[in-house]
């Protein structure tokens, strides 16, 4: 009896649980018995044949080349291969003298006519596979256009069945949102963020703690802000986003910044916050023995270095200077509330609507440039994606204005926060101190070791109301409205509240 290998295959692991493999095996066994062939070893594979690279098939081909068997029996041609690379390998071993048999196809692989018929059937099998791939992609892209994500739910979401929207995981979803917030603060590298999320218990698909590549994939996935990737395009999703488009764009900015300058060895309080008054370059922090110094690295700059502890004392005095007086709180709160009701919300909406219309116009013009051949397709794709993100962010801001609570309590909390800036700054940890500086000062320069800080517009406007002889006639802009909706300012207010409940003396100095 001629020793041969038997090869049976299904495309997926799930199909392997059905009757197909047994049916193939029975057909091959019957063929071997009729033709006096001995099956010396079986190869049972659960892999698609549309592409080369099946592990068991490759191992079997290697052994056939080595002469470990005289022949090979497979059920049908489409079970052997649906790609021309593997078909060529079968031809190669055939020319070495290995007999190729197909149990369900009565053809002689060694004859000219039989080989021609086999090649035709192989072409049909390959075409079927390609067409099936196209139909699957068509279905997937159709789902994406409908706003439905057809793939496995990203970490932080749950699958709810085919054709349904992904739902936020009540356990992992909040942790993923925290992951974005922490990285967006600029205080974490991906490595340190991974360690922090492991400490907080964020787990991946296999219920194992997340690793660095998981965190990096999350930060790069626009699904979390309501966008879906597919075929090189972005689609608007109908699922509930975990973060805003603005937060996602902030993540991209932080990552780009870290590519330019990796995190330093020491955690510096004023890293990338201070500028030289002469050349406007960012000051670099360096630890020398027991102190940290900030200095300008421009070659011919004559500005002296500034010590971190001395700068922190100056920041404390700067916060004392920009915070509003306790006696003016009620006057300011009443004026802000009245302004919001009459003008503020409408002004902000009008401004955003104008920006939205302008962005749409620029996006339409971009399409015209592509049609006219003025720009290349890759450049068009990048710029269109940026416009898509910008439009989504503007729509989110408009929706937030319509939904945002601007009652008396919101205004009072903001005024209370602005009244206690210096005491809050002295009591809060480093990351929140940085957030306070970013949100309470427009620019921060250093002149020969002396701080020169410009207060934020919203603080200037609030103080001007308190100092005015006729507060109700003091003009205001949308800066105060933006401060009311600023998530970082709200989180700082929460710290202020916690500090107050812990016994912090919030009386003005």
How far is the first residue's CA from the last residue's CA?
102 Å
The major pleated sheet works out as:
4 strands, parallel
Helix proportion: 40-55%
Secondary-structure-derived class: alpha/beta
CATH-defined superfamily of the largest domain: Resolvase, N-terminal catalytic domain
CATH architecture of the largest domain: 3-Layer(aba) Sandwich
The residue ranges in which pLDDT falls below 50 over 5 or more consecutive positions are: 501-509
DSSP E strands, number: 14
| Whole-number mean pLDDT | 83
Portion in beta strands: 5-15%
The helix tally amounts to 19
**Number of separate structural domains:** 3
Per the CATH scheme, the topology name of the largest domain is: Rossmann fold
Tell me, briefly, the overall form.
elongated
Major β-sheet strand ordering: 2-1-3-4
CATH class of the largest domain, named Alpha Beta
Rg (CA only): 33 Å
Keywords: Coiled coil, DNA integration, DNA recombination, DNA-binding
GO molecular function: DNA binding; DNA strand exchange activity
InterPro entries: DNA_bind_recomb_sf (IPR038109), DNA_bind_recombinase_dom (IPR011109), Recombinase_CS (IPR006118), Resolv_N (IPR006119), Resolvase-like_N_sf (IPR036162), SSR_resolvase (IPR050639), Zn_ribbon_recom_dom (IPR025827)
Protein name: DNA invertase Pin-like site-specific DNA recombinase
Report on this structure.
The chain has 509 residues and is an alpha/beta fold. It folds into three domains: 131 residues, Rossmann fold; 117 residues, Hect, E3 ligase catalytic domain fold, CATH 3.90.1750.20; 122 residues, no CATH class. 55% of the residues lie in helices and 13% in strands. The protein is built from 19 helices and 14 strands. The chain has a four-stranded parallel β-sheet with strand order 2-1-3-4, with helices on both faces. The chain has a three-stranded mixed β-sheet with strand order 9-13-14. β10 and β11 form a beta hairpin. α7 runs antiparallel to α8, α7 crosses α10 and α12 packs antiparallel against α17. The chain starts with a strand and ends in an 8-residue tail after the last helix. GO terms for molecular function: DNA binding; DNA strand exchange activity. It comes from Litoreibacter meonggei. This is DNA invertase Pin-like site-specific DNA recombinase.
């Amino acid at each position: 009896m001629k020793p041969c290998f038997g090869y049976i295959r299904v495309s997926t692991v799930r199909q392997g649980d059905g009757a197909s493999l047994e049916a193939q095996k029975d057909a091959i066994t019957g063929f071997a018995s009729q033709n006096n062939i001995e099956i010396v070893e079986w190869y049972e594979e659960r892999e698609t044949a549309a592409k080369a690279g099946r592990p068991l098939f490759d191992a079997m081909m290697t052994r056939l080349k080595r002469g470990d068997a005289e022949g090979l029996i497979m059920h049908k041609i489409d079970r052997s291969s649906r790609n021309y690379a593997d078909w060529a390998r079968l031809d190669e071993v055939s020319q070495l003298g290995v007999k190729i048999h197909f149990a369900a196809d009565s053809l002689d692989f060694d004859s000219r006519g039989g080989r021609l018929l086999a090649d035709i059937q192989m072409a049909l099998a390959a075409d079927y596979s390609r067409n099936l791939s196209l139909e699957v992609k068509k279905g997937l892209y159709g789902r994406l256009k409908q706003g439905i994500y057809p793939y496995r739910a990203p970490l932080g979401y749950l699958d709810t069945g085919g054709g349904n929207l992904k739902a936020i995981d009540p356990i992992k979803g909040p942790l993923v949102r925290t992951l974005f917030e922490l990285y967006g603060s600029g205080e974490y590298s991906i490595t340190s963020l991974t360690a922090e999320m492991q400490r907080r218990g964020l787990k991946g698909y296999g219920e194992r703690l997340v690793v660095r590549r998981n965190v990096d994939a999350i930060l790069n996935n626009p699904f979390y802000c309501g966008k879906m990737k597919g075929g090189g395009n972005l689609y608007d999703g109908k699922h509930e986003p975990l973060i805003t488009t603005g937060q996602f764009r902030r993540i991209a900015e932080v990552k780009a910044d870290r590519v330019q300058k990796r995190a330093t060895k020491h955690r510096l309080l004023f890293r990338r916050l201070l500028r030289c008054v002469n050349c406007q370059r960012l000051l670099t922090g360096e630890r020398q023995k027991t102190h940290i110094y900030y200095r300008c690295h421009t070659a011919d700059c004559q500005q002296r270095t500034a010590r971190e502890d001395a700068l922190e004392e100056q920041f404390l005095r700067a916060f004392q200077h920009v915070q509003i007086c306790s006696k003016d709180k009620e006057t300011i709160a009443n004026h802000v509330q009245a302004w919001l009701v009459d003008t503020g919300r409408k002004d902000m909406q009008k401004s955003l609507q104008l920006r939205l219309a302008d962005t749409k116009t620029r996006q339409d013009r971009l399409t015209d440039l592509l049609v006219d051949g003025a720009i290349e397709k890759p450049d068009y794709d990048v710029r269109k994606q940026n416009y898509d993100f910008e439009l989504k962010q503007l729509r989110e801001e408009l929706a937030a204005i319509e939904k945002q609570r601007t009652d008396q309590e919101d205004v009072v909390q903001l005024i209370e926060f602005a009244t206690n800036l210096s005491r809050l700054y002295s009591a809060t940890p480093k990351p929140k101190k940085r957030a306070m500086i970013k949100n309470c000062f427009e620019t921060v320069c250093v002149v020969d070791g002396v701080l020169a800080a410009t207060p934020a517009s919203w603080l200037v406007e609030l103080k001007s109301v308190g100092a005015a002889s006729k507060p109700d006639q003091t003009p205001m802009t949308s800066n105060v409205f933006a401060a009311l909706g600023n998530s970082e300012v709200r989180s700082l207010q929460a710290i202020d509240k916690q500090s107050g409940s812990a016994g912090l003396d919030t009386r003005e100095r």
